[in-house]
Structures are given as structure tokens and as C-alpha cells.
């Protein structure tokens, strides 16, 4: 191998005398010591190449000390110049396990060479003279997880069991991460359950696996178990805060916040990541005031901090506050808005129908901040135009988009056509585009189309839509609502009778009906079942919507002055929206509902959305 030595500026030369007597161990060991010392002081690749050249000239190829020197040279090169490390490695006749691991680790740490890490591992396995050890597999599994290389990961799993490392804690943690990343939560859980010994990392990686897979209840149960063995650290808390956000588990989220403050650990209290998670959690749990408190007390913020609070205000329909915080971000000047920031701003405009303002921010993003709009930005703007009744402008925007509109954009257009009583022909054309879009087929599209036909009294077509759903095996997504009382989540489906307090719940609903009648309430049947029914059948269906059952449970069990917080998987219907406004006035209670699209805060007979949603 020819080595080119390029002197650094100023060069630090290594001077070593080659022994004339090859059997002179004293001289050889002296050279070895000097080379080891030089490697310890090595600062850059220029010096390393000099040392490598001297090693080639002054050492015996098969001496045991030479192998050690090459392992040190390889280790330094692997973190500084991977190509050079490869050349060094290929020069070694019989690399040992440490050398193989060094190269595998270097490849697994580099984004562009993770696939090479797997290939080097396969070479190592084929190399009969050397065996992988417990340090080999975490590097390989990390590369497999990054590449979603499930098949290669399973092969590595088989190899590590073959070599007796199935009970190694560090390797098992890597396996859990691999399987969770590749969407095999059952395999990740199996590895975790079979572990004879678990570290703090084991619990954290399994909890995070549940959170990332949307299994929030399982994450919280595991968190409770973990506390019997370990005190939660920052990684644990961040995962659990994220689970609370998606579950709407406000009481547990508040407990974690209090736990962090009680610990008085500066690393936790001032952590930007944890505080960002808290802001997002409070926003998603319907407590915008607490989200603001956390945001305002943060000693340091990044762009995610600003995005979280802006998106929170947008989700709650507080467009003015969202735009005010955007102005604060711009005025501070040390952090610049990014693509997600403008998603938040455009969403805020969308939830309040600020058509002109939304267009101005879209232009500002492109012209002043040079941020190219992506599908999500166009989706916000299309929805803004369509929901405000500017359907022609929305269609023009869709036609001129530089990318193909997805099913979400077409569905927002169909929803607007349904609400704004657009022409039947236009609604059918939009529905056709949805069915032709990738991932566009869902029950919501059929429901919207059936409403379009129902509004035109085309009941035969309504029946055909329903038959088409049956033929394709598509069922309407059931409405589901949850409410948290004393830290326990209660879940309801439409018409649910499984709750222990069912009798009392339906008693409250009867009382609600009587009091609504006394003030002249008339039901809105426009979003009742898909077929033409008698009015009393429709009314019975409406009164059993899942959010009404949850609200009734809240009236039964929550103390006066405590807001009723309900989380619903679908958009709230027109009638439930009107009824909830009236309930808030009749029972003098604040009701906060998070549906699929946004938050609604009902108080004194009105809603924060101002009937625009």
C-alpha cells in the first residue's frame, strides 16, 4: 500500500529509528511505545497518516504489538476519514473483532453509510476466523432501524441468539428499538417481556415504542410499573407527556409538570425539549392558559417552542393570539419562522375565516422568508377559501398547485360543497377525484356524498351510496368520545350502554331534552343518519351521540366550576354543537370539546369558534 504523507501546518513530525536487529525486542518495544504515545497525541488526519507511514516502515507485520497499533489507527481514522479507515482495514490480514466493530460502528454513525454497516457485518459473519461480540450487534441493529431493514434486523437477531447474547440488556434495548421503528410492536413487546434484567433505558425505549405506535394507554400502564423500580428521567417524562397530549390525560400531565418542578433539577426544569412537550400537551388537553404559563417561564426557547404555542392558539381558534405570537417571534429576531410556523399561522386564519390575512401570510412565507410551500400549506389555504364559501378560488388554487393534490384537500373541498350547498355536479366531480386519489377511500367521503344527495332529496342515490359502502366492506367510522374524571378516562360510543352509570347518564339526557324543549329548541337533522327516516328516529339518533353521553357523565360527577373536557374522534355535528351551547347556558357549566379538527369552548350559550368550523 502506498501512503501519501501530507504535512500539516505546522507539521508535527514523529521521529523513530528502525532497529537493525529484528530480534532486538528492546528497540522494537521502544518504537512501539513511541508510536502509541504519538497516537495518543494525534490531533488530525495529517498526523495520523505520518504515524501510519512510520508504522508500515518500523514494525513487523505479524507482531502482536503491530495489530494493536493498527486498531488504534483504525479507531482514529473511523471518526475522521471513513474512506481512509476502509483502506487501513483492507490492509490488515486478519482483523480482530474490535477492528470489525470499529468499522461497523463508524458506518452506523454516518447517515450515508448505514447500509455499509450491515454489509460489513455480513462480511464479518462470513469470516470464519472471527466472531461478533456483544458490542457488534447494537451498531448493526441501529443501522437496521434507521433503514427500516426489518429482514436484516431479524437475521442479526438470529445471529446474536446463536452466539449467546440473547439476554444482554444493551442488545435487547436495541432490538426493542429496531422492532418498534419497523412497526412490529408485538415483537418489541416480546423482547421486553422476555428480558431477565431491565435497565432504565429498557423501560424508556419500550414506553417510547408504545407512544410512537399510538398505544398511549399501554405506555401509561408501563410508566406506572416502571416507577416501582426506577425514578423517571427526562426521556421517560418526555415520552409520557406526549402520551398525555394524545390521550387528553390532563391530570397526569399536570402531575408530571408538578413532579418536574418539585424535583428542582435545573436540567429538567429548563429543558427546552420537556417544556416544548408540556406546551403541546396543555394545548392538546384544552388548557391554553397553562400552556402559556409554561411558554412564558421558559428560560430558553427554540423554533419548536414558538411553533407549539402558535399551533395551540390556532387549534383553539384564537387567531389574534396566534398572529400576535408570530409578531413577537419576528420582532425578537434571533429565531426565524420555518415551514411549520406558517402551517400554524395559516391554520389560525383558517379557523377564523381570515381569507385576506391568510393569503397575505402565504405570500409573506414565499417572498420574504423564501420558504417553498408544501402540500400542507396549500391544504390550509384551499380549506380556508372553501370553508369561507370561495369555492371557485379554492378550485383555481388546486388547479395551479405545483404538486398533485391529495385526498385530504379533495375531502375539504367536498365538505365545503356539502356545507355551502354547491351544485350537485361539482360535488360529484370532487367526490370522483377523492376516489381516484391514493388513500382517498374512507367512510367519511361516502357520508359526505350521501349528505349531498340527501340535501337534493335524491334518496335513491343515498341508498346507492349506502349499498356501495356495504359491497366494498366500508363501514362508517363510529363516533367515540372520552372524558377524564378523577384521573380515570371514560370512553363512549354512540348509543353506548356499557358504562356502570348508564341509568344515571340517560336520566341526565332525559332532563336535557326536557329543558331544551322548554326553551323552544328544534333539532337540526341535516347530519342525522344517511337515509330518510322519521323525525323521531333521527332525534333519537342525535341524542345518543357519544359526546352527549360524555357530557352527561361530566354533569353527574364533576364538581361545580370544573370544566367538562371531552375528546371526540370525529368532527362535532351541527346539532350537537348547538345543543352543547345550550347545555353550557342551562347548566351553567364550561364545556371544552376537542374534535378531529379543533377545540370548541362552550360557555354561557356560545362557542369560541363563533359557529365557524
TrEMBL record:
Residues 1-20 are annotated as: Disordered. PPR repeats lie at residues 96-131, 168-198, 199-229, 271-305. Keywords: Repeat. Pfam families: DYW_deaminase (PF14432), E_motif (PF20431), Eplus_motif (PF20430), PPR (PF01535), PPR_2 (PF13041). It comes from the Eukaryota. One of its GO terms (molecular function) is zinc ion binding. PROSITE patterns: PPR (PS51375). Residues 520-613 form the DYW domain. Gene3D superfamilies: Tetratricopeptide repeat domain. GO terms for biological process: RNA modification. InterPro entries: DYW_dom, E2_motif, E_motif, PPR_At4g14850-like_plant, PPR_rpt, TPR-like_helical_dom_sf. Coiled coil: none annotated. The keyword Repeat applies. Belongs to the PPR family. PCMP-H subfamily. PANTHER family: PENTATRICOPEPTIDE REPEAT-CONTAINING PROTEIN (PTHR47926). This is DYW domain-containing protein. It comes from Acer negundo. The lineage of its organism: Eukaryota, Viridiplantae, Streptophyta, Embryophyta, Tracheophyta.
